Amino acid sequence: MEKIVRTKVKDLLRMKPGQDVLAKGWVRTKRGNKEIAFIALNDGSTINNIQIVVDKAEIGAEVLAKISTGACIAVTGALVESVGSGQAVEIKARAIEVYGECDPMRYPLQKKDTSFEYLRTVGHMRMRTNTFGAVLRIRNQMAFAIHEYFHSKGFVYLHTPLITASDAEGAGQMFQVTTLDLNNVPKNKKGEPDFTKDFFGKQTSLTVSGQLEGELGATALGEIYTFGPTFRAENSNTPRHLAEFWLIEPEMAFYDTNDNMDLAEDFIKHLVRYALDHCYDDVKFLNDRYDDGLIARLESVVKTDFVRLEYTEGIKILEQAVADGVQFEYPVSWGVDLQSEHERFLVEKHFGKPVILTGYPKDIKAFYMKQDENGKTVRAMDVLFPKIGEIIGGSEREASLEKLEARIAELGMSRRNLEWYIDTRRFGSCPHSGFGLGFERLLLFVTGVTNIRDVIPFPRTPKNAEF
Ligand code: 4AD
Ligand code: MG
Questions:
Q1: Whose CA is nearest to atom 14 of ligand 1?
Q2: Weakest mean pLDDT among 1-10, 26-35, 255-264, 340-349
Q3: Cβ < 5 A residues, ion ligand 2
Q4: CATH homologous superfamily for 9-100?
Q5: How confident is the model at residue 1, as a pLDDT?
Q6: What per-residue confidence (pLDDT) applies to 168?
Q7: Would strands 176-177 and 163-164 be described as parallel, antiparallel, or unpaired?
Q8: Which of the following CATH numbers is that of domain 127-173+208-454: 3.40.50.300, 3.30.930.10, 1.20.1440.230, 2.60.120.560?
Q9: Which of 452, 442, 459 is nearest to 247 (CA)?
Q10: Which ligand sits nearest to residue 249's alpha carbon?
Q11: For residue 164, pLDDT beyond 80
Q12: pTM, whole model, 2 decimals?
Protein backbone atom coordinates (compact mmCIF):
# COMPACT_ATOMS: atom_id res chain seq x y z
CA MET A 1 0.00 0.00 0.00
CA GLU A 2 1.15 3.50 -0.78
CA LYS A 3 2.55 5.35 2.21
CA ILE A 4 0.38 8.28 3.19
CA VAL A 5 2.14 11.52 4.12
CA ARG A 6 1.01 13.52 7.09
CA THR A 7 -1.28 16.49 6.43
CA LYS A 8 -1.57 19.37 8.87
CA VAL A 9 -4.96 19.94 10.46
CA LYS A 10 -5.20 23.40 8.94
CA ASP A 11 -4.97 21.86 5.46
CA LEU A 12 -7.16 18.84 6.25
CA LEU A 13 -10.01 21.16 7.19
CA ARG A 14 -9.90 22.69 3.70
CA MET A 15 -9.63 19.43 1.78
CA LYS A 16 -12.35 17.67 -0.18
CA PRO A 17 -13.69 14.48 1.42
CA GLY A 18 -13.04 11.13 -0.20
CA GLN A 19 -9.34 10.53 0.33
CA ASP A 20 -7.15 8.67 2.77
CA VAL A 21 -5.23 10.90 5.15
CA LEU A 22 -2.77 10.79 8.03
CA ALA A 23 -3.12 13.30 10.87
CA LYS A 24 -0.83 13.73 13.86
CA GLY A 25 -1.40 15.86 16.91
CA TRP A 26 -2.49 16.19 20.51
CA VAL A 27 -5.87 15.20 21.84
CA ARG A 28 -7.96 18.11 23.06
CA THR A 29 -11.00 16.08 24.13
CA LYS A 30 -12.40 12.58 23.87
CA ARG A 31 -16.07 11.80 24.31
CA GLY A 32 -18.55 9.28 23.02
CA ASN A 33 -20.63 6.25 23.88
CA LYS A 34 -20.18 2.47 23.98
CA GLU A 35 -19.75 2.10 20.25
CA ILE A 36 -18.25 5.32 18.97
CA ALA A 37 -15.69 7.79 20.29
CA PHE A 38 -15.12 11.33 19.06
CA ILE A 39 -11.66 12.78 19.42
CA ALA A 40 -10.86 16.45 18.84
CA LEU A 41 -7.30 16.59 17.52
CA ASN A 42 -5.09 19.68 17.30
CA ASP A 43 -1.57 19.99 15.93
CA GLY A 44 -0.94 23.70 16.47
CA SER A 45 -1.33 24.63 12.82
CA THR A 46 -4.71 26.26 13.49
CA ILE A 47 -7.03 27.09 16.35
CA ASN A 48 -9.49 24.57 14.88
CA ASN A 49 -9.48 20.85 15.66
CA ILE A 50 -10.19 17.99 13.33
CA GLN A 51 -12.73 15.52 14.59
CA ILE A 52 -11.72 11.86 14.58
CA VAL A 53 -14.55 9.36 14.59
CA VAL A 54 -13.53 6.06 16.15
CA ASP A 55 -15.48 2.84 15.87
CA LYS A 56 -14.50 1.05 19.06
CA ALA A 57 -14.97 -2.35 17.53
CA GLU A 58 -12.52 -1.48 14.77
CA ILE A 59 -9.78 0.28 16.77
CA GLY A 60 -10.08 -1.73 19.96
CA ALA A 61 -10.76 -0.75 23.55
CA GLU A 62 -7.11 -1.20 24.49
CA VAL A 63 -5.88 1.56 22.16
CA LEU A 64 -8.76 3.84 23.04
CA ALA A 65 -8.05 3.49 26.74
CA LYS A 66 -4.63 5.01 26.16
CA ILE A 67 -6.10 8.09 24.56
CA SER A 68 -6.98 10.99 26.83
CA THR A 69 -6.68 14.77 26.81
CA GLY A 70 -3.10 15.75 26.01
CA ALA A 71 -2.05 12.42 24.49
CA CYS A 72 -0.18 12.49 21.20
CA ILE A 73 -1.50 10.26 18.43
CA ALA A 74 -1.24 9.53 14.71
CA VAL A 75 -4.46 8.69 12.92
CA THR A 76 -4.87 7.10 9.53
CA GLY A 77 -8.29 7.04 7.97
CA ALA A 78 -10.69 8.35 5.40
CA LEU A 79 -11.50 12.03 5.22
CA VAL A 80 -15.29 12.09 5.07
CA GLU A 81 -18.00 14.68 5.05
CA SER A 82 -18.95 15.53 8.59
CA VAL A 83 -22.51 14.90 9.68
CA GLY A 84 -22.17 16.96 12.83
CA SER A 85 -22.20 20.72 12.66
CA GLY A 86 -19.11 22.82 13.16
CA GLN A 87 -16.82 21.29 10.58
CA ALA A 88 -17.05 20.27 6.93
CA VAL A 89 -14.90 17.16 7.20
CA GLU A 90 -13.79 14.62 9.77
CA ILE A 91 -11.60 11.53 9.78
CA LYS A 92 -13.07 8.06 10.07
CA ALA A 93 -10.20 6.30 11.83
CA ARG A 94 -8.81 3.07 10.40
CA ALA A 95 -5.70 2.89 12.57
CA ILE A 96 -4.42 4.89 15.50
CA GLU A 97 -0.87 4.87 16.80
CA VAL A 98 -0.40 6.31 20.28
CA TYR A 99 2.91 8.17 20.36
CA GLY A 100 2.64 9.44 23.91
CA GLU A 101 0.09 8.80 26.59
CA CYS A 102 -0.91 11.56 28.97
CA ASP A 103 -1.78 10.70 32.57
CA PRO A 104 -5.08 12.46 33.32
CA MET A 105 -4.27 12.54 37.03
CA ARG A 106 -1.07 14.50 36.49
CA TYR A 107 -1.47 16.51 33.27
CA PRO A 108 -1.46 20.16 34.40
CA LEU A 109 -3.86 21.30 31.69
CA GLN A 110 -6.43 18.79 32.80
CA LYS A 111 -7.49 21.19 35.53
CA LYS A 112 -10.65 23.21 35.26
CA ASP A 113 -8.63 26.35 36.03
CA THR A 114 -7.55 27.80 32.70
CA SER A 115 -7.01 31.38 33.90
CA PHE A 116 -3.94 33.23 32.65
CA GLU A 117 -2.69 33.35 36.24
CA TYR A 118 -2.87 29.58 36.59
CA LEU A 119 -1.30 29.00 33.19
CA ARG A 120 1.68 31.17 34.18
CA THR A 121 2.42 28.61 36.91
CA VAL A 122 2.68 25.90 34.26
CA GLY A 123 4.52 28.03 31.73
CA HIS A 124 6.25 25.01 30.21
CA MET A 125 2.91 23.54 29.12
CA ARG A 126 0.76 26.56 28.41
CA MET A 127 1.64 26.66 24.71
CA ARG A 128 -0.53 23.53 24.40
CA THR A 129 -3.67 25.53 25.16
CA ASN A 130 -5.92 27.04 22.52
CA THR A 131 -5.32 30.51 23.92
CA PHE A 132 -1.52 30.40 23.76
CA GLY A 133 -1.63 28.68 20.41
CA ALA A 134 -3.68 31.61 19.10
CA VAL A 135 -1.45 34.25 20.70
CA LEU A 136 1.78 32.65 19.48
CA ARG A 137 0.53 32.15 15.94
CA ILE A 138 -0.45 35.83 15.85
CA ARG A 139 2.98 36.73 17.26
CA ASN A 140 4.62 34.76 14.48
CA GLN A 141 2.52 36.42 11.77
CA MET A 142 3.21 39.88 13.18
CA ALA A 143 6.97 39.28 13.16
CA PHE A 144 6.75 38.25 9.52
CA ALA A 145 4.55 41.24 8.66
CA ILE A 146 7.09 43.62 10.19
CA HIS A 147 9.92 42.28 8.07
CA GLU A 148 7.73 42.25 4.98
CA TYR A 149 6.61 45.85 5.55
CA PHE A 150 10.10 47.27 5.80
CA HIS A 151 11.46 45.01 3.11
CA SER A 152 8.81 46.25 0.68
CA LYS A 153 9.86 49.83 1.44
CA GLY A 154 13.54 49.14 0.86
CA PHE A 155 14.66 49.43 4.48
CA VAL A 156 17.79 47.50 5.42
CA TYR A 157 17.47 45.10 8.35
CA LEU A 158 20.41 46.09 10.54
CA HIS A 159 21.67 43.82 13.32
CA THR A 160 22.70 46.01 16.22
CA PRO A 161 24.62 44.51 19.15
CA LEU A 162 22.95 42.95 22.17
CA ILE A 163 26.08 43.41 24.26
CA THR A 164 26.96 47.07 24.39
CA ALA A 165 29.56 49.34 25.94
CA SER A 166 27.27 52.35 25.51
CA ASP A 167 25.02 53.48 28.32
CA ALA A 168 23.94 56.70 26.66
CA GLU A 169 20.42 55.89 25.62
CA GLY A 170 19.16 56.25 29.17
CA ALA A 171 16.02 54.32 28.30
CA GLY A 172 16.26 52.16 31.40
CA GLN A 173 18.44 50.45 33.96
CA MET A 174 20.90 48.07 32.34
CA PHE A 175 21.87 44.46 33.06
CA GLN A 176 25.63 44.11 33.37
CA VAL A 177 27.50 41.53 31.33
CA THR A 178 30.63 40.25 33.02
CA THR A 179 32.84 37.22 33.41
CA LEU A 180 34.54 38.62 36.50
CA ASP A 181 34.44 36.33 39.52
CA LEU A 182 31.78 37.91 41.70
CA ASN A 183 33.35 36.35 44.80
CA ASN A 184 36.67 37.91 44.03
CA VAL A 185 36.23 41.04 41.94
CA PRO A 186 39.59 42.54 40.89
CA LYS A 187 39.87 46.17 42.02
CA ASN A 188 41.72 49.14 40.58
CA LYS A 189 43.71 51.71 42.57
CA LYS A 190 40.51 53.57 43.45
CA GLY A 191 39.03 50.39 44.88
CA GLU A 192 36.49 50.11 42.07
CA PRO A 193 35.95 46.94 40.02
CA ASP A 194 38.76 46.68 37.46
CA PHE A 195 36.93 46.17 34.20
CA THR A 196 40.17 46.06 32.23
CA LYS A 197 40.32 42.50 33.60
CA ASP A 198 36.82 41.74 32.34
CA PHE A 199 36.05 39.80 29.16
CA PHE A 200 35.83 42.86 26.89
CA GLY A 201 38.37 44.89 28.83
CA LYS A 202 35.66 47.37 29.71
CA GLN A 203 32.30 47.55 31.38
CA THR A 204 29.51 46.11 29.22
CA SER A 205 25.77 45.62 29.47
CA LEU A 206 22.82 44.18 27.61
CA THR A 207 21.36 46.77 25.28
CA VAL A 208 18.22 48.76 26.11
CA SER A 209 17.82 49.86 22.48
CA GLY A 210 19.58 49.57 19.14
CA GLN A 211 18.84 53.16 18.18
CA LEU A 212 22.23 54.81 18.55
CA GLU A 213 23.88 52.13 16.42
CA GLY A 214 20.84 52.30 14.15
CA GLU A 215 21.62 55.96 13.50
CA LEU A 216 25.07 54.92 12.27
CA GLY A 217 23.28 52.65 9.80
CA ALA A 218 20.65 55.18 8.69
CA THR A 219 23.26 57.85 8.02
CA ALA A 220 25.00 55.40 5.68
CA LEU A 221 22.32 53.14 4.21
CA GLY A 222 19.45 55.63 4.26
CA GLU A 223 16.66 53.66 5.90
CA ILE A 224 17.24 50.84 8.34
CA TYR A 225 15.30 48.97 10.98
CA THR A 226 16.30 46.76 13.86
CA PHE A 227 14.15 44.00 15.33
CA GLY A 228 15.59 42.21 18.30
CA PRO A 229 15.45 41.64 22.03
CA THR A 230 16.21 44.48 24.42
CA PHE A 231 16.76 44.36 28.15
CA ARG A 232 15.71 46.76 30.87
CA ALA A 233 16.33 46.11 34.53
CA GLU A 234 13.63 48.48 35.72
CA ASN A 235 11.84 47.18 38.72
CA SER A 236 8.44 47.87 37.22
CA ASN A 237 6.05 45.07 37.95
CA THR A 238 3.24 46.22 35.69
CA PRO A 239 1.10 44.45 33.09
CA ARG A 240 2.94 46.43 30.38
CA HIS A 241 6.64 45.97 31.30
CA LEU A 242 9.03 43.12 30.64
CA ALA A 243 12.72 42.96 31.56
CA GLU A 244 13.34 41.33 28.16
CA PHE A 245 11.19 42.50 25.29
CA TRP A 246 11.43 42.73 21.52
CA LEU A 247 11.84 46.13 19.97
CA ILE A 248 11.44 47.29 16.37
CA GLU A 249 13.39 50.46 15.63
CA PRO A 250 13.28 52.05 12.16
CA GLU A 251 15.66 54.94 11.59
CA MET A 252 15.42 57.09 8.46
CA ALA A 253 17.73 59.64 6.89
CA PHE A 254 15.95 62.75 5.52
CA TYR A 255 12.74 62.17 7.49
CA ASP A 256 11.44 65.09 9.52
CA THR A 257 9.03 64.77 12.39
CA ASN A 258 5.97 64.71 10.11
CA ASP A 259 7.45 61.97 7.94
CA ASN A 260 8.21 60.10 11.14
CA MET A 261 4.60 60.33 12.32
CA ASP A 262 3.28 59.35 8.89
CA LEU A 263 5.45 56.24 8.86
CA ALA A 264 4.54 55.25 12.43
CA GLU A 265 0.83 55.57 11.69
CA ASP A 266 1.01 53.71 8.39
CA PHE A 267 3.19 50.98 9.90
CA ILE A 268 0.94 50.22 12.81
CA LYS A 269 -2.22 50.33 10.71
CA HIS A 270 -0.60 47.95 8.26
CA LEU A 271 0.18 45.52 11.08
CA VAL A 272 -3.33 45.64 12.52
CA ARG A 273 -4.83 45.14 9.07
CA TYR A 274 -2.45 42.24 8.50
CA ALA A 275 -3.67 40.59 11.70
CA LEU A 276 -7.29 40.89 10.58
CA ASP A 277 -6.45 39.54 7.12
CA HIS A 278 -4.06 36.74 8.08
CA CYS A 279 -4.94 35.72 11.64
CA TYR A 280 -8.71 36.04 11.58
CA ASP A 281 -9.49 32.63 13.13
CA ASP A 282 -7.16 33.27 16.04
CA VAL A 283 -8.29 36.87 16.55
CA LYS A 284 -11.92 35.73 16.39
CA PHE A 285 -11.24 33.04 18.98
CA LEU A 286 -9.74 35.62 21.37
CA ASN A 287 -12.56 38.03 20.62
CA ASP A 288 -15.26 35.46 21.39
CA ARG A 289 -13.53 33.97 24.40
CA TYR A 290 -12.13 36.98 26.26
CA ASP A 291 -12.85 40.35 24.73
CA ASP A 292 -15.86 40.84 22.48
CA GLY A 293 -14.75 44.36 21.58
CA LEU A 294 -11.46 43.20 20.10
CA ILE A 295 -12.30 42.93 16.42
CA ALA A 296 -14.23 46.20 16.50
CA ARG A 297 -11.22 47.93 18.07
CA LEU A 298 -8.85 46.57 15.47
CA GLU A 299 -11.14 47.55 12.61
CA SER A 300 -11.60 51.02 14.00
CA VAL A 301 -7.86 51.69 14.35
CA VAL A 302 -7.29 50.73 10.73
CA LYS A 303 -9.94 53.19 9.57
CA THR A 304 -9.37 56.27 11.74
CA ASP A 305 -6.86 59.06 11.40
CA PHE A 306 -4.78 59.27 14.54
CA VAL A 307 -5.01 62.55 16.46
CA ARG A 308 -1.79 64.61 16.36
CA LEU A 309 -1.48 66.73 19.44
CA GLU A 310 1.19 68.87 21.08
CA TYR A 311 2.09 67.83 24.61
CA THR A 312 1.22 71.34 25.81
CA GLU A 313 -2.31 70.95 24.42
CA GLY A 314 -2.56 67.50 25.98
CA ILE A 315 -1.67 68.89 29.38
CA LYS A 316 -4.38 71.56 29.01
CA ILE A 317 -6.96 68.84 28.29
CA LEU A 318 -5.83 66.82 31.31
CA GLU A 319 -5.84 69.89 33.60
CA GLN A 320 -9.33 70.72 32.42
CA ALA A 321 -10.38 67.13 33.17
CA VAL A 322 -9.04 67.45 36.70
CA ALA A 323 -10.93 70.75 37.07
CA ASP A 324 -14.05 68.88 35.92
CA GLY A 325 -13.61 66.30 38.66
CA VAL A 326 -11.65 63.49 36.98
CA GLN A 327 -9.37 61.85 39.55
CA PHE A 328 -5.87 60.73 38.59
CA GLU A 329 -3.48 58.92 40.87
CA TYR A 330 -0.56 61.10 39.68
CA PRO A 331 -0.74 64.91 39.45
CA VAL A 332 -0.51 66.55 36.05
CA SER A 333 1.03 69.87 35.09
CA TRP A 334 3.30 71.13 32.30
CA GLY A 335 6.65 69.39 32.60
CA VAL A 336 5.56 66.04 34.07
CA ASP A 337 6.06 62.75 32.30
CA LEU A 338 2.64 61.37 31.48
CA GLN A 339 1.51 58.27 33.32
CA SER A 340 -0.38 55.50 31.59
CA GLU A 341 -3.63 56.73 33.24
CA HIS A 342 -3.17 60.15 31.57
CA GLU A 343 -2.34 58.65 28.20
CA ARG A 344 -5.37 56.40 28.37
CA PHE A 345 -7.63 59.29 29.38
CA LEU A 346 -6.64 61.20 26.25
CA VAL A 347 -7.03 58.17 24.00
CA GLU A 348 -10.04 56.41 25.47
CA LYS A 349 -12.10 59.16 27.08
CA HIS A 350 -11.26 62.41 25.37
CA PHE A 351 -10.59 61.53 21.72
CA GLY A 352 -11.76 57.94 21.42
CA LYS A 353 -8.90 57.12 19.04
CA PRO A 354 -5.12 56.76 18.95
CA VAL A 355 -3.16 59.93 19.69
CA ILE A 356 0.33 60.92 18.56
CA LEU A 357 1.70 63.30 21.15
CA THR A 358 4.56 65.58 20.11
CA GLY A 359 6.62 68.47 21.43
CA TYR A 360 7.46 67.08 24.86
CA PRO A 361 9.48 69.06 27.42
CA LYS A 362 13.15 68.37 26.72
CA ASP A 363 13.85 67.54 30.36
CA ILE A 364 11.76 64.36 30.30
CA LYS A 365 13.16 63.11 26.98
CA ALA A 366 16.49 61.80 25.71
CA PHE A 367 19.50 63.98 24.83
CA TYR A 368 19.44 63.15 21.11
CA MET A 369 16.02 64.58 20.28
CA LYS A 370 15.76 67.60 17.99
CA GLN A 371 15.41 70.77 20.03
CA ASP A 372 12.65 73.21 19.19
CA GLU A 373 13.31 76.92 18.69
CA ASN A 374 11.56 77.74 21.98
CA GLY A 375 14.39 76.06 23.91
CA LYS A 376 11.88 74.14 26.02
CA THR A 377 10.51 71.31 23.93
CA VAL A 378 11.83 68.61 21.60
CA ARG A 379 10.49 66.85 18.49
CA ALA A 380 9.58 63.73 20.39
CA MET A 381 6.61 61.69 19.30
CA ASP A 382 4.81 59.04 21.32
CA VAL A 383 1.97 57.02 19.83
CA LEU A 384 -0.67 56.32 22.48
CA PHE A 385 -3.16 53.49 22.07
CA PRO A 386 -6.41 52.46 23.69
CA LYS A 387 -5.96 49.94 26.54
CA ILE A 388 -2.17 50.19 26.26
CA GLY A 389 -0.98 53.77 26.58
CA GLU A 390 2.42 54.27 24.92
CA ILE A 391 3.01 51.76 22.13
CA ILE A 392 5.61 53.74 20.15
CA GLY A 393 8.24 56.24 21.26
CA GLY A 394 10.43 58.19 18.86
CA SER A 395 11.62 61.56 17.61
CA GLU A 396 13.35 63.58 14.98
CA ARG A 397 17.02 63.60 15.98
CA GLU A 398 19.15 66.65 16.72
CA ALA A 399 21.27 66.97 13.58
CA SER A 400 23.29 70.01 14.68
CA LEU A 401 26.68 69.12 16.15
CA GLU A 402 26.73 72.27 18.29
CA LYS A 403 23.28 71.74 19.76
CA LEU A 404 23.90 68.05 20.42
CA GLU A 405 27.20 68.73 22.17
CA ALA A 406 25.63 71.52 24.19
CA ARG A 407 22.86 69.20 25.36
CA ILE A 408 25.32 66.46 26.29
CA ALA A 409 27.31 68.97 28.33
CA GLU A 410 24.17 70.43 29.91
CA LEU A 411 23.13 66.97 31.08
CA GLY A 412 26.64 66.29 32.41
CA MET A 413 26.87 63.12 30.32
CA SER A 414 30.17 61.35 29.82
CA ARG A 415 31.40 61.53 26.22
CA ARG A 416 33.73 58.62 26.80
CA ASN A 417 31.66 56.06 24.92
CA LEU A 418 29.84 58.57 22.78
CA GLU A 419 32.36 60.00 20.33
CA TRP A 420 31.42 57.43 17.71
CA TYR A 421 27.83 58.64 17.93
CA ILE A 422 28.77 62.31 17.78
CA ASP A 423 30.72 61.58 14.60
CA THR A 424 27.39 61.14 12.76
CA ARG A 425 26.88 64.89 13.31
CA ARG A 426 30.52 65.76 12.77
CA PHE A 427 30.82 64.13 9.36
CA GLY A 428 28.04 64.67 6.84
CA SER A 429 25.26 65.20 9.34
CA CYS A 430 21.74 64.93 7.98
CA PRO A 431 18.21 65.44 9.21
CA HIS A 432 16.87 62.08 10.37
CA SER A 433 14.20 60.50 12.52
CA GLY A 434 13.15 57.20 13.98
CA PHE A 435 11.00 55.43 16.50
CA GLY A 436 10.66 52.25 18.52
CA LEU A 437 7.63 49.96 18.60
CA GLY A 438 7.45 47.57 21.55
CA PHE A 439 6.57 44.25 19.94
CA GLU A 440 4.75 42.90 22.99
CA ARG A 441 2.80 46.16 23.39
CA LEU A 442 1.64 45.71 19.80
CA LEU A 443 0.63 42.14 20.62
CA LEU A 444 -1.34 43.28 23.66
CA PHE A 445 -3.35 45.46 21.32
CA VAL A 446 -3.80 42.91 18.56
CA THR A 447 -4.73 39.99 20.84
CA GLY A 448 -6.68 41.91 23.49
CA VAL A 449 -4.65 40.06 26.13
CA THR A 450 -4.24 42.32 29.17
CA ASN A 451 -0.96 41.16 30.72
CA ILE A 452 2.29 41.43 28.77
CA ARG A 453 3.55 38.19 30.40
CA ASP A 454 0.99 36.35 28.30
CA VAL A 455 2.05 37.51 24.82
CA ILE A 456 5.65 36.25 25.01
CA PRO A 457 6.47 32.55 25.36
CA PHE A 458 9.07 32.95 28.11
CA PRO A 459 8.52 36.18 30.07
CA ARG A 460 11.29 37.77 32.12
CA THR A 461 10.13 40.05 34.92
CA PRO A 462 11.54 40.99 38.34
CA LYS A 463 12.13 37.77 40.33
CA ASN A 464 11.07 35.61 37.42
CA ALA A 465 13.33 33.97 34.84
CA GLU A 466 12.10 30.42 34.38
CA PHE A 467 13.59 28.17 31.70
O1 4AD B 1 10.12 54.77 24.45
P2 4AD B 1 11.33 53.88 24.42
O3 4AD B 1 12.16 53.76 25.63
O4 4AD B 1 12.18 54.40 23.17
C5 4AD B 1 13.39 53.91 22.77
O6 4AD B 1 13.91 52.92 23.20
C7 4AD B 1 13.94 54.65 21.59
N8 4AD B 1 15.34 54.27 21.45
C9 4AD B 1 13.12 54.33 20.36
C10 4AD B 1 13.62 55.01 19.13
O11 4AD B 1 13.39 56.19 18.97
N12 4AD B 1 14.31 54.28 18.26
O13 4AD B 1 10.86 52.42 24.00
C14 4AD B 1 10.18 52.20 22.78
C15 4AD B 1 8.97 51.32 23.00
C16 4AD B 1 7.93 51.90 23.94
O17 4AD B 1 7.09 52.82 23.27
C18 4AD B 1 7.18 50.66 24.38
O19 4AD B 1 6.27 50.24 23.38
C20 4AD B 1 8.28 49.63 24.43
O21 4AD B 1 9.35 50.11 23.63
N22 4AD B 1 8.79 49.39 25.79
C23 4AD B 1 8.59 48.27 26.49
N24 4AD B 1 7.90 47.16 26.21
C25 4AD B 1 7.87 46.19 27.14
N26 4AD B 1 8.52 46.25 28.33
C27 4AD B 1 9.23 47.36 28.65
N28 4AD B 1 9.89 47.40 29.82
C29 4AD B 1 9.29 48.42 27.71
N30 4AD B 1 9.90 49.63 27.70
C31 4AD B 1 9.59 50.20 26.52
MG1 MG C 1 9.11 56.01 25.68
A1: 436
A2: 1-10
A3: 393
A4: Nucleic acid-binding proteins (2.40.50.140)
A5: 53
A6: 76
A7: unpaired
A8: 3.30.930.10
A9: 442
A10: 1
A11: yes
A12: 0.97
